[in-house]
Amino acid sequence: MTLFEEYVGRYAAGERPDLRAYLDRAGDDRDELARLASGFLQWADAPEPDEDAVAIMQAWIDGEAPLVALRVRRGIRREQVVAWVMERFGLAADAREKVALRYHELETGQLDARRADPALLESLAELLRARVADVIGWRPRPIAAEAAYFRADTELAQFMPAPSEAAAVEPAQPDEVDRLFLGQSGR
Amino acid sequence: MSHDRDGEDTKLLAAGDHARLLAKYEPVIIGRCIAELRGHADADDVAQDVKLRLWSELARGKAYRVPFRVVVHKVIGWTLGDHFAGRPTHGPLPEGWDPADPDDAYGELLDDDAVAAALDGLPDGKTRQVMELHYRARLEIDQIAERLGMTRNAVDQALHRGHAKLRETLTGG
Asked: Is the ipTM of this complex over 0.85?
């Protein structure tokens, strides 16, 4: 079975196969697989979404953080996520507050999840019973976009934080927690 | 693609169930963006902007003469086209945009066969070089400028000329 056939088979079975992972496996056939997948997605039936997907999309539409919505649907408190990360990565007790801050930043889209250590993303995906691609891809809808799309809301727009204001603060001296959440350099 | 599915979309549109409708197409949106950008990290940003554009269309209550799936793929095509041309993808679609427009050659830019044929039809020179590097090698504008020893503005202008020629070729105009 070719990679394309495997991808199509999983898609048709109602799964959400991670195309990026398939492209990474394709080697020299990466371009060919990408072309086939794009063509397939243009005529294939879109899969029926499950209730998780609908709830997460509703949170996104409402301007809420989709990852928060997913965590709440799983009945998991933020402190439980922090404890999970602390234990999984053997972090010292005094790092708890910083882990809570960094996870809050990641969950609310202030921190780009693509920078995070892949092991952290895999661990979070396991806890949330989601895919790594969801942890990376589900960011809150930018509120500033409201102003761009509905320019009549000028009074509202003046109170919107600029992207730089909303972004997580970069550490002067990155530590192990920064390395986990902000990537290798911690910056 | 079954007509039943199009009928379901029409019902969701009529019911204002935008969350279910967008959730249904979310895997398609992210999948196509990843495919067209060959897995590049920018695919997540472009997919987010496709969702924003679709949500904006839905929130305005626009009615379409074509099935919603066509709207989805047109918006994906437009947004990817903006990305490849170095234009911002986070703004709304142009006023008067019509997914049922048969002359929307721009929206078809990512049809690989059509683009390949159209690129082959461009005369030799800087414009063709820039278009080749942008659409075939998938280089960003800054990368093209560096490789060809051009300014960013000159690359922008070459892309503009190239798009005009592509439109002529693709529409037979």
From this structure: no
